[in-house]
User: Fold these one by one.
Assistant:
Number 1:
Amino acid sequence: MRRPVFLSFCYDDDVFRVQEIKKMGLFEGQPLLSTNEFEKIKRNGSSAIQNWIDEQLKYKQCLIVLIGEHTAKRPWVQYEIKKAEEMGKAIFGIYIHNLEDVNGYSKKGSNPFTEIYGYEKYKSYDPSHCDIKGLRAYDVISKNIQNWIEYAVLTKER
């Protein structure tokens, strides 16, 4: 069963990596906004961005934070995490720095849950611990993401 999820990430740094994860077809996710679409929303101010996030999160069971080099410090990622928690959504993170994009690999970023709460309040999976230059990160994510989603949703329901 494909669960509906919301993907939280640093758009400027990681959109290519996120597209690769979406192409796996293993979950139902929100549409990825193009730069032009996001700019249209952004022109209407912070409340328009919040409304878009809130509306997208409303129908999702789980928030997945795709953690790149700068994700933890991004204000909208932090908002999405707090909002998902407020809405009672299942939450977890996946480090994606070892997925290659057009610029190669990035550095491992700090944990956004630690950034917000001072400790890793939610589970974060790091497929790079068994990786050499991205050779297996994609495979680890594709083979495990559905189980990670199920685990997060089922433990949240308990």
Number 2:
Amino acid sequence: MLRSIGYVVTFFLFQALMANAQQSPSPDVTRLYVIGDSTAASYTPDRAPLTGWAQDLQEYFDATKLIVEDKARSGRSSKSFIEEGAWDSVRDGLKKGDYVFIQFGHNDATKADPKRFTEPETTYREFMKRYVDDARAKGAIPVLVTSINRNQWADDSRTLKEGLGEYPAVTRKLAEDMRVTLIDLEMKTRELFQSLGPEKVKGLFLYLKKGESPNYPEGKEDSTHLREAGAREVAKLAVAEIRKQNLPIAGYLK
């Protein structure tokens, strides 16, 4: 009797171990790295409802086939992400078949900060090209991503302001010149925001009334950074482009 019970216990332990093994991705599973600035970065619960668009991107993918590594960092530009060494740790971990989504531009325009500022046609293009070249040298697949728009409107309240300068245009041209896949979130967020209008778009950004969130007791009015709802909508735009352009990783989407 005891021996029978032992067999039963052993069987169920074995089944549990096998289930865990099947759920855990193998070391050579494809990885999708996202590098960029605060609009794509992940945040701890004490910053909620602040959410980067890549923070919950894993939810759209089968984790046994693809792992999303959100390596975007708040406040970084194409220049500072490299010069601070953040790119080194990502690049060194790349393997053949991995993907790198590259989104910079917001902080590159910070003329007052020489550690971050880049000129669109020269230094910005050079840094963005370096990401592409480095990824390809490791056998990874780079994807250039234009920056998302801010919640800033022209006087007619129907048209978004052109608040990102020449950076999106340079990214598009670089993608064309280097034959790199482009996910144009600048264009897609422009279309989405203008379809919603100024008031509804506020619900996608970090606009909080006083007392609405314990993490922001005095409230918040932020036209650049997203809250959960906004991050989901932008992530959906990225996923839709992955499907539309028939990228190989589209086969890993749930």
Number 3:
Amino acid sequence: MTTSAAASGGRLATAFLAELDNEAKVTRSCLERVPADKFDWKPHEKSMTMGRLASHVAEMFGWADATINQDVLDFATMEYTPFEPKTTDDLLAFFDDHIAKAKTTLAGASDETFMKDWTMRNGDQVYFTMPKVAVMRSFVMNHIIHHRGQLSVYLRLNDIPVPALYGPSADEGKM
């Protein structure tokens, strides 16, 4: 095991921390552009508002903790109140807090922890069970990327420059 892997708990943790750093950077660049006066805007009646979508993107980084430190997420036994920021600064502070906690959680996770099963359920109804490494990849990271993509469309539809995410955007210049 490399020195950095040993310091971070495991090789899988090292990989997820590197990815988290990149995804956090580009996600923050999107969240910084969400103006509070557009928090109630939505492109369609069935869509989330821009503020709710931005908060959801920010909160999903916190799911690393629930994935690594719990074996089951049961909606029937938990209370949930969505975060409702009043300002863009509130949104960014919420995001930064979740990133810090996710980094701490991942840094301490062993490879053995990542290989343990994790279950999402609502009482007797089981939605899925899979290893925590797969939950981190699909339910946490891919889910963040999906909703961040939606948020970039919300920005575009409001003539707010879309930041570069995985290369230059139409608003951020050419390669």
